[in-house]
Specification:
Elements lengths: L1 H11 L7 H17 L2 H10 L18 H8 L6 H4 L3 H8 L2 H4 L3 H22 L1 H5 L2 H15 L5 H20 L2 H34 L9 H28 L6 H20 L11 H43 L1
């Protein structure tokens, strides 16, 4: 199934074939692969045919969504890597059950510590021109990059969150007592509000279930909303450490620390103010999910191709070694 999917998807991929037929074929191939490679969806299809599946062939599989794939491809993909790093929920999904993998809490903390360090280094490099005096050049570069990032999945929301945290934490690090206190309260509220909203959504769904009420026909918007709120908490917590590390770095003098804080505040403002030009229907939960699912499939296809190439290279190497042995 995987090989057939790869061959057909490569043939009809829109990047290689821009016809309307190719777009339709590529979508059908993706849907077929999704159904055939999932036991539950396949069972539903065998029993009820296409009528037993939703229009995009995904609804029957909601509870089995891969957290790693969803978070990786839904919330910014790799383009935000230097801004937010790998989200904790992705790391936890990748390491699996600690009882089975043997991964300890200390090791998970070390992974998060390294994430903070990498992001701090990236932030220092990002603001270097501003700190050295090339403020206008730096702002132009930040604006240009923000305009690219804002158009990816959840780009506007991610930029807004990153920008807010940058501004609030930088103010806490070097602002007056009054400004620092206000910023600390605002930053705290950002995380608390996200946590409370996520809990409220889950609680309402549990109450409906216990009361025998039917849930909403389309659960996807609520599902993605909770995932996004979890992401906000993660980003806020991690970036607080990142900004504090950069602004309170004792390896540089106090004047440089002040310049860094100012640069981060200005950068945060630019990120927060950058808005998407996409129409609203392209930002709907359904569209975002479908887009992320297609990206995940394409990524999977690429990995399959890489694995095939490695296997072919290994086989060729082995074949060459056997030929040399025969000649000897």
């Amino acid at each position: 199934i995987k090989r057939a999917y790869y061959l057909q998807a490569r043939k009809w991929h829109p990047d290689k074939n821009d016809s309307e037929e190719a777009k339709q074929k590529f979508q059908e191939i993706g849907e077929a692969y999704q159904v055939l490679s999932d036991q539950k969806l396949r069972a539903v299809y065998d029993k009820e045919g296409k009528g037993g599946l939703s229009g995009d062939r995904t609804e029957a599989n909601m509870e089995q969504l891969d957290p790693t794939a969803i978070f990786t491809f839904l919330f910014g993909n790799d383009q935000f890597q230097d801004y937010i790093g790998r989200l904790q929920v992705v790391t936890q999904a990748m390491v699996g059950d600690p009882k089975e993998t043997g991964i300890t809490a200390a090791q998970l903390r070390e992974i998060e510590r390294r994430r903070v360090v990498r992001l701090a280094i990236s932030l220092v490099n990002r603001i270097a021109k501003f700190v050295s005096g090339d403020e206008e050049v730096a702002k132009e570069e930040w604006s240009a990059k923000a305009k690219e990032l804002v158009e990816v999945r959840y780009g506007e929301e991610l930029l807004d969150t990153v920008g807010k945290v940058y501004k609030l934490v930088a103010t806490q690090a070097t602002g007056s007592w009054s400004d620092s206190t206000d910023a600390k309260i605002a930053e705290h509220d950002l995380k608390v509000n996200a946590a409370m909203e996520a809990m409220e959504i889950q609680q309402k769904e549990e109450e409906k279930s216990e009361g025998g009420e039917e849930g909403d026909a389309d659960q996807l918007p609520k599902f993605l909303k909770v995932m996004w709120l979890v992401t906000v908490i993660d980003i806020s917590t991690t970036l607080r450490e990142v900004v504090m590390k950069v602004c309170l770095d004792v390896s540089v003098d106090s004047e440089t620390r002040k310049k860094r804080a100012k640069a981060i505040q200005v950068l945060g403002g630019i990120l927060e103010e950058t808005k998407s030009m996409e129409v609203d229907n392209k930002k709907s939960a359904r569209h975002l999910y479908q887009s992320a699912a297609q990206a995940a499939m394409e990524n999977h296809m690429q990995k399959m191709r890489e694995a095939e190439l490695k296997a072919e290279a290994k086989a060729n190497k082995k074949s060459g070694a056997s030929a040399n042995f025969d000649l000897d």
